[in-house]
Fold this protein.
Amino acid sequence: MNSSPASTGRILFHVDMDGFYSSVEVKNNPQLKGQPVVVGSDPKNGTGRGVVSTCSYEAREFGIRSGMPISKAYKLCPDAVYLRVNMELYKEVSKSIMIILREFADIFQQVSVDEAYLDVSMRVADYNDAARLARCVKDEVFLREGITCSIGIAPNKLVAKIASDFQKPDGLTVVNPEGVVKFLTSLPASRIPGIGKKTTNMLAVMGIGTIGDLAVCDVQLLLERFGNFGLKMHQMARGMDESEVVERGDVKSISKEDTFDEDTADPDIINGVLDSLAVGVHGSLIKKKFLFKTITLKVRFEDFSTYTRARSLRVYSTDLEIIKITAKDLMREFMGKRRFRLLGVGVSNFEKVDEKQMLITDYL
């Protein structure tokens, strides 16, 4: 039986760091404060490859956004400070921030390097109390790490995530159970996680522009057009989400990606990159002592259209050659169509094994 947003009695935070990579860079180099900072790849005077990973809010005033081609960002703001991604630095700061956030939670779930959910249901009396706690969280993160975050407070993870993005940067948005529908109704449908540009355009053709439009749409029409995701969208538009905040100490997937300096359709280059990605993934797999069952291929064409394909094995494995062979087999569907901008290889569906089991499995 589906529950309403008000029926769970939970109070959850979604904490999202503001322009995390660029914020860390500014913290690391205070001279960058107030400047448009773009973190991604080298724009090479407008001819560089790759995309914007994140940017400061000063850069966003020029129209620069995450995921934008770095060449386009350069055209919008050639005088911005362009920095390469320094993931080791960001992970170090992230680790410190997550330690702070965990101190405030009954149950804590980190979902990315700069996002986490906190279940605070047992720590607060009501939503006013939750807002006071959230301000303490924000103050503590800024005091100890020198960067800001935005927090959404709501009765479920979905609404909390949407709320955390509502008043960025340094925002705090509280949505109590009775206010969920009113909060969501006028927002663009694209604010719902999982609804990207293509789905947004398909919904627009159906006359659906807002979350409110989606909530009152005939669910049968959505099922016919989008399959099971249509039903999921309809439920989310009504503010329904029963997923729990779950402590996660385990890794869900391991993947590697490579963006080409120049778009290519050369089979030799493609096969070489797939082999290299597979070796990288396999190295991480062995280091973490995992068996895998699912191999995933990701491709991005020159027009930035992106596709993934996956195949699951009948048994768990640690075999590097299986990763290579499966990735190339999945790649056949896309060969000879267009040039590629990016390739990615990943493995998932893990089983943890001890060192002795891992060695035995390698020789089966």
The first strand starts at residue 12 and ends at 17. The longest helix spans residues 267-288.
